[in-house]
Write a structure and sequence with these properties.
single chain, alpha/beta, eight-stranded mixed sheet, six-stranded parallel sheet, 21 strands, 13% helix
């Protein structure tokens, strides 16, 4: 994911500041990646803003605790469309052609991959992952640490009755969610049903 974000970040930094530097951070750095230096965590300065470029919701939450002392960077592609009435949490990533519609609230460390959509009046928790081409319709509440696979569609809720996806749930690739999903449950298929083991 870090490599996917590299071009977005470099384009944003070059248009904002001539002195901004883009770096990768890894516990065991090896050579530059796409011409970008890789440093160890103890080389970070107190003022360096970081973003966790990793698809796993659980891994992003773990990193947020580990690096809680560092300021966060929120990365928004120039091609993303964000409503002025939407709220985006710190450390979030909105990749190319991501859309966040009006009156939606997104938590910290959200990851909206390419062509993903958060429609009107949604509430999205912390460390939620939208893979490419996820479509989340209006009046949906997604709790923390949810992973939504590529091409999944989440049906709209209604004012006073949001469709709810519980904490730590997993929505499978291409699933169509038409009803609430309990916390920690993996759902797959059309319509989405709990995955049999």
């Amino acid at each position: 994911m870090g490599r996917e974000l590299a071009d977005i970040v470099r384009a944003r930094c070059s248009s904002i500041s001539k002195t901004a530097e883009v770096l990768f951070v890894a516990d065991e750095p090896s050579g530059p990646v796409l011409g970008i230096p890789v440093i160890q965590p103890d080389s970070l300065r107190a003022t360096d803003r970081i973003c966790f470029a990793i698809g796993s919701s659980v891994a992003r939450r773990t990193l947020s605790y580990r690096f809680s002392h560092q300021p966060l960077a929120t990365i928004v592609s120039d091609t993303a469309i964000i409503s002025p009435s939407a709220e985006i949490g710190e450390g979030s990533v909105l990749c190319d052609y991501t859309v966040v519609n009006n009156s939606s609230r997104i938590g910290r460390h959200f990851q909206g991959n390419t062509f993903s959509q958060v429609s009107h009046d949604c509430i999205i928790g912390d460390c939620v992952t939208f893979s490419p081409r996820v479509s989340c319709n209006g009046w949906v509440h997604i709790e923390d640490d949810v992973f939504v696979g590529s091409g999944a569609i989440i049906r709209n809720g209604a004012p006073g009755r949001r469709l709810r996806i519980g904490k730590g749930a997993v929505i499978g690739m291409g699933a169509v969610v038409v009803r609430d999903v309990p916390a920690g449950v993996t759902v797959v298929g059309v319509p989405a049903r709990p995955q049999s083991t």
